[in-house]
Design brief:
This protein has about 140 residues and is mostly helical. The protein is about 55% helix and about 10% strand.
């Protein structure tokens, strides 16, 4: 984790990424679908100005992983990113892997902090996040 933190700190310091309004918690559970079409997006409590590429990384992780391993379906990843780009989505899809790694690091640190405070956390999920740090390196 320390190596990942140091590498990502360097990467973030030099990253030149677009900033705009983002949802902040965009995943399938926050998308309302009716008749196969998006009817609405809910749960805007984490909306802010940030990197849309970070939101894309989270969306790819949500849509292309089983949640039980660190492996992503690469064909599905390419399809999701392609559709995002074709639809005019903002952000740099080339930053996907470091941002997915950053999201894994942040989530692992939050989870470990919860554990240290005696709050609920998921050991298996946290271990998977930590494993992801090396896989995406």
């Amino acid at each position: 984790m320390l190596r990942a933190f140091e590498e990502l700190r360097e990467w973030v310091a030099t990253a030149d990424l677009r900033v705009c309004a983002i949802h902040g918690d965009f995943h399938t559970g926050n998308v309302l679908v009716r008749d196969g079409h998006v009817a609405g997006i809910v749960d805007w409590q984490f909306a802010r100005r940030d990197w849309p590429a970070l939101e894309l990384a989270g969306m790819v992780w949500d849509l292309c992983s089983s949640g039980e391993s660190t492996a992503l379906d690469s064909a599905l990843r390419d399809q999701v990113v392609g559709q995002y780009v074709d639809a005019g989505g903002p952000g740099e899809p080339g930053a996907l892997e470091p941002l997915m790694r950053l999201e894994s690091l942040v989530s692992a640190l939050v989870s470990l902090t919860r554990a240290a405070r005696g709050q609920s956390w998921n050991r298996e999920f946290t271990q998977m996040l930590i494993a992801t740090l090396d896989e995406l390196a």
